[in-house]
C-alpha cells in the first residue's frame, strides 16, 4: 500500500472539491494503479518525480512519487484546475534543502517572469550586488534589510531558496513581504519572519529545530536511496510544519483535507508548539505569549499527548470562565474524537471545566465534616456555617458592608475595588480568620501601605462583609476557592492521593490568589503537574499574582511564544501600540516585553473612524457590516465589541433602526448574523472582521472603573483598561475597525495624532 504525505494546502480548496480529493486520496492510498486515478508522469518537468492524478474531469492533483523501500510514497502537493495543475507540476521541485536537510517543494518562477528566474538563478552561482531596498511604504520597513541581512548570508547560512531570499529582501511593502513568506516552504517563511523581527539566526534555528546538515558526519545517510532520505526528512520538526504523514487511518486523512487552513492547528504545529505540547518538566511550566500565538492550541495538544502517554492519567484542563471551558472542550473533541473525556474531576481521562465550577465540584464532593473543618480554617468558628450557595460578589455588597461599619477610612481605601483585592490577595490567600491575624499578616506586593489603625478599620469592613454574606446564605467564589484549597490539603494530609495527575491552565493571567492555592493543591508536586498558559498583556481581571508564594515555582521552566497565528501584521502592530508605555509585569514582577511578536499574515491597515455623533457612528457600523455581508463573510465571523453593556444596547437598537440584524454572542442563533459582546466577553474569541465600537473618551478607560481609587489601584485599573482594548483589538483575524463618536479614547493612537499602524 502506498504511503501518503500531505502538504498543507496554501491555495484554498473549494468545498465541492474537498470530497473529490478525499476520494482520490483514499483510492490512491489503497492502490495507486486503481482505474481512473491516471497517475501519470509529464513532459518538460523540473523534477522527474512529479505526477498528476485525475480528481475528476476538471481537477488534477499534483503529486511527487518517491520510490521508497517497501512501497512508493506519494507526496500530495495540491489540487488545481487541469491547466493550472499541469503548469504547477512542470515548475515544481521536491528537494532536500542543502543546508538543513528538510524536504521542500519549490515552485520555479512563473514562465512569464522568465527574466527574473534567469537573474535569480544567476544569483545562486555568482557573486552579486546587494539589492537596494525601495521604500515605497513610508510606515513599513523591511526587517531583513533593517537588520542588515545580506543575500549570500540568507542563502548560504539561513538555507533560503535564492529566489525567495531575494524577493523577501527586496519586498517594498508589508503585503509584498508577506506574499513571499506565505508562498515559501513554511519553515523558510517563518525563518524570514523571525529574522525580520530581530531574532538571530541561531535563535530561529533553535526554535524551528533546524540543524545544519553540513556539520553532521556524512556517513549517516550514505547507504540510503535519495528517495528514502527525503521520506525520512518529513519526520523532522521543521518539515512537520507543512507536511503530515497520513497513516492507514482514513479519519486522519479526512481531517486534514476537510479542515482546511482553519483547522491547520490540528495537524501542523510549529516546532516550538510541538516542544511545549510534548515536553516533560519536573514541576510547573509556564508558557507565555501574546494574543493569538497558539497557547490554547498547545494546551489542547498537550492534553492529547499526556493522555496518549498514560491512558490512565487524570488530566484536568481548566480556564477562567465556563464559556472558554466549553470552547476548549469542543476543540479537544475536534482534535481527537477518540480522546477519553472524563465526566468528573478526579476520574481517568481528560476533564475540562471552568475553574470556579471545578472549585464547586471539589467542595460538593466532600463530606459535611470535611467541609466544616475547611470552612473553620478559612473563616474561623463564627462564620463556619455550611449552609450557603456560591455567588459572585457585586460592588453593592461591599458598599453595604461599608455603610454598616464605622471604619474611619479615607475614600481611597473605603471603596469596593481596594477592598475586594485586599480581601482576596491578603485575607483569603493567607487564610486570615481573625482581626489579630489580619493585623500581623504580611501584605507583600500590595501597592497601598496600611498602618495598624487602618488595618483595624479595614478588618471591620471584612467582618461586616462576612456577616452579611452568611446571613444572606452566600459564599463568594474566591472564598469557596480558598475553602476547597483547604479541603484538598486536608485530603493530602490524611494520606489520600491528589485529585489530578496533570492540570493544564489556560488564560492564567486572570486567576486570583485563591484560585492558585486551589490549583496547586489539585495535583501533587512533581513531573508535569501544572502547565500554565498566560499572557500578562491580557490581564483584565484582578491583580497580578506572584505564583511562587503559592508553592508554584516556575524558575527555569518558563518560555514564550512569539509568532502570532491569528492576527495580521498590521492589526498586531496596532494592538501592540495600544500597550506602548504601559509597564506590564509577569507573575513574578519581571517586565513583560511586547517587542518581538510577529505575525505570519498580512492584511489591510486597521482603520480608525471618528464620527461627529453616535448616529453617524452607527451609520458607519451599518455600512461596514453590510459591505462584509455582501462580500459573503459569514455573519458570526463579524464581531462588534464595546466596553460596556450600555453601549451594546445602543448598538443593538441603532442597528434595529437601520434594519441590520445583530445578535448577542450568548444567543448567536443560526450563525448568519454578526455578533456583539463586551470587551470582557471577547476574551479567547476570534472573528474575521472586528469593529471596536464606542471607543470614546470616558468609555475607555471607563471612568467608573478608575474614579476614586488610590494611586496604586488606579494605575492597575488603568492598565487593565488598556489590556481590555488590546484583548478586543487582537480578536480580529483580518480586518479591524476602531470607531468612536465625539472625542476618541486617550488610549488610541488617534488621540495623540499618531498615524494608524501599517
Ligand atoms: N500551528 C498552527 N497552525 C495554524 N493555525 C494555528 C496554529 N496555532 C494556532 N493557530 C491558530 O491561531 C489562532 C490563535 O490560537 P490560540 O487561540 O491557541 O492562541 P492564544 O495564544 O491562546 O490566543 P489568545 O491569548 O488571544 O486567546 C487560532 O485560530 C488557531 O487555530
TrEMBL record:
It catalyses: Couples ATP hydrolysis with the unwinding of duplex DNA by translocating in the 3'-5' direction; ATP + H2O = ADP + phosphate + H(+). PROSITE patterns: UVRD_HELICASE_ATP_BIND. It comes from the Bacteria. The keyword Phosphoprotein does not apply. Residues 268-603 form the UvrD-like helicase ATP-binding domain. It is an enzyme of class 5 (isomerase). Its EC number is 5.6.2.4. InterPro entries: DNA_helicase_UvrD-like_C, DNA_helicase_UvrD/REP, P-loop_NTPase, UvrD-like_ATP-bd. This is DNA 3'-5' helicase. Keywords: ATP-binding, Helicase, Hydrolase, Isomerase, Nucleotide-binding. It comes from Paeniglutamicibacter terrestris. The keyword Nucleotide-binding applies. It holds the Pfam family UvrD-helicase. ATP binds at residues 289-296.
